[in-house]
Amino acid sequence: MQLRLTRTQLNELELALAGAYGARPRYRLPAADEPAATLLIRDITAGRRIELLDTETTPIAVLEVAQSQTTDRGTWVAGEITRLREPATPPFADLRPGPGRPLLDHAVLVIGHDRVPGDDPVIHLDTGDTDALARAVHTARRDRRTVRVLPEPAAEHLDGDARTTLLTYLAEVTTASHVTVSRRRATPRGNGLVVLFTGLSGSGKSTIARQLTGRLRAETHQRVTLLDGDEVRAMLSSGLGFSRADRELNVRRIGWVASQLAAHGGIAICAPIAPYRSMRDEVRAMAERAGRFVLVHVATPLEVCEARDRKGLYAKARAGEIAEFTGISDPYEDPTDADVTVGAHGESIEECTEQVLAAITGGVGSYII
């Protein structure tokens, strides 16, 4: 079986292969008190041998699964890692941990911001946001400071102080003998917003999204952009098919564009099917780096969607004329983390729109996020 790794999962693999977790590259089951490379898989069943792919779907390593542990979040897997080939070159490869690269005497690990006072060497995290990393590195170079890059691992079992402890450990093992941490104080996020609608074909998500867009354009000073699934496929994702990889890439593109709009203070309304939980999580992560994120599940029952089907797509899918059709021959993973759920009980488009507006504004009637 194959697993395409996310950016932070690739970071974790990079660290493991660089010896940050020990001489033998391997994943372990998560433990809060022991630094270890971990791997959580969600959408596939773990086999005995997992081929790990980079973002370009190139096989780069093999995991021989020796242990696994299934939770409500997915399955953690553990075992020995064998490198097959180098992945696609990561940003600032010359600044990242690598064999033979000498340790600095000391450095400041910068978490959550671009700049710290002084002239000490700095370590910036690669969180998967290439633009943010480039800004941080260029700022350090402009200030004539020594700069290094630490890949931030997925480490999905850790947060808060435990995560900072892991990052400090990794920085001291790979980059500098003594590390101090500079963390940005909590500040409000930008006023951008990404609203992601998800639901079956025919659920009404595009219609609700259009009505929501009209309401927001009339009632807020912020720029509002609608990224409808069909229109995006025709323009931004022309040429993609409906395989899982192509669907994931389509949603990833939508999420990236939406997060860029939000980063500049806009509101992006997105209405793809977005059937896979892992991709919705990825869009949430991108969006929340720029501002707020609201996930809307349009939970119209399958039988209602089929009855509304003016294009006859469901009938063709049941007849085997359309392969990989969501809800029939391809799974739809119901969200467990939706900020608002509409459409499950026959609500009108207007009622659904009002519920989404209430979720966005907190019921106070203000569209300034």
UniProtKB/TrEMBL annotation:
Q: What is this protein called?
A: Adenylyl-sulfate kinase
**Which GO CC annotations does the UniProt entry carry?**
cytoplasm
Quote the CDD domains the UniProt record gives.
Answer: APSK
Lineage, broadest ranks: Bacteria, Bacillati, Actinomycetota, Actinomycetes, Micrococcales
Which species does this protein come from?
A: Demequina lignilytica
Q: List UniProt keywords, sorted A-Z.
A: ATP-binding, Kinase, Nucleotide-binding, Transferase
**What's the stated role of this polypeptide?**
Catalyzes the synthesis of activated sulfate.
Part of which pathway?
A: Sulfur metabolism; hydrogen sulfide biosynthesis; sulfite from sulfate: step 2/3
User: Where's the APS kinase domain?
Assistant: 192-342
Which Pfam families is this protein grouped with? APS_kinase
Molecular-function annotations in GO: adenylylsulfate kinase activity; ATP binding; sulfate adenylyltransferase (ATP) activity
Q: Which GO terms describe its biological process?
A: sulfate assimilation via adenylyl sulfate reduction; sulfate assimilation, phosphoadenylyl sulfate reduction by phosphoadenylyl-sulfate reductase (thioredoxin)
Quote the catalytic activity from the record.
Answer: adenosine 5'-phosphosulfate + ATP = 3'-phosphoadenylyl sulfate + ADP + H(+)
Q: Return the similarity comment.
A: Belongs to the APS kinase family.
Tell me its EC number(s), please. Answer: 2.7.1.25
